[in-house]
Amino acid sequence: MDSPIHLIRTRRFADDRGSFRETWVEPRWAAAGVDARFVQDNESHSLRAGTIRGIHFQRPPHAQAKLVRCVTGRILDYAVDLRRGSPTFGRHVAAELSGENGDQLFIPVGFGHAFVTLEPDCIVAYKVSDVYAPDCDGGVLWSDPDLAIDWPLPPEGETLSTKDMMLPRLADFDSPFDYDGRPLDGIQGV
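Given the sequence above, the corresponding structure tokens read:
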């Protein structure tokens, strides 16, 4: 069975002017397992290495699938299984995304999303399948020991928003997401 998380590898075409890369081609991405219609593009800029954003999601009726890429710099991007009844509930996978490799991570509805910057001055862009709805905004605590995420942090530690420091632990989270029969079994590379 295919994993619900997909790593999309893009091709970079370089010449003496610079480079070109296709970052979204709907029929090719659909054939690779990206089964979402995207309605909004987001971009974040993180100044420091060790900046953590997440673990975030949106609840139904505005749940979001995401297609994430790092435009500048390097990040470690995480997907955390938050689907009620999943045999892999609370487990995570991660992939390094960078401006250099051009890889993209597809994270379907039912998974929390987070990333940590591996170097300063990172720009991350991502498509989402529903618009931002503040009343549906949610997350789980990045440092919850039940998640067992080994964040690669610089000696000076993490940089977090106040909101991300206050998110609930997984044990206190009542998931609105149902298991779809596809366990989190690594990352499907395409």
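The two ends are 15 Å apart (CA to CA). Try to locate this feature in the token string yourself.
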